[in-house]
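Narrative of activities, Objective 1.

The group set out to show that a structural description can be obtained from nothing but a protein's sequence at a throughput compatible with the screening campaign. Below is one input-output pair from the validation batch, recorded exactly as produced.
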Amino acid sequence: MRGYFAVGAEGLSKRMNLGNLMRSAHAFGANFFFTVDAEKNLRKAPPSDTSKSPGHLPLFSWDSVETMDLPRGCQVVGIELTDDAVDLPSFGHPLQAAYVLGPERGSLSTAMLERCDHVVKIPTKFCINVAMAGAIVLYDRHRALGRYADRSLTAGGPSVEVPKHVSGGPISRTGRVVPGQDK
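Output recorded for this entry:
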């Protein structure tokens, strides 16, 4: 998959949710994980992160939205149930993204929502667990940006396999033929 992505949460207070969210981020191939304004005891991976993700992806802990230091070009995608949020199944994921989820029994702060380039919502009847919401969003990104056959219109798997990716030969900027390459 091209691009990179990070997963984080603002204002988390439960160790189990942090561990589960970190494990999902690791499983779906996140490049780093972050917390913003988390409880002090949540600044490292808890035992519920059975994949031991900090050994595989960096963990950043920022005190506030203002101190977040994301890579240039990284778009912040808030996951929040707001009236103007885009439904997740209709959302086009940015190649460089930092997905941020809100706290348990709360919402993303006004400062975080202002920092977001996009806000998406999972079309559910009510709020779901933060770790579960994170896993759903990461699956959707993986499905949307991964190289998979088109979804079947009928029950069952796709009828056509995705062709293998083929890299092209060397490209000459001068227009000269590179030895071993047909023009």
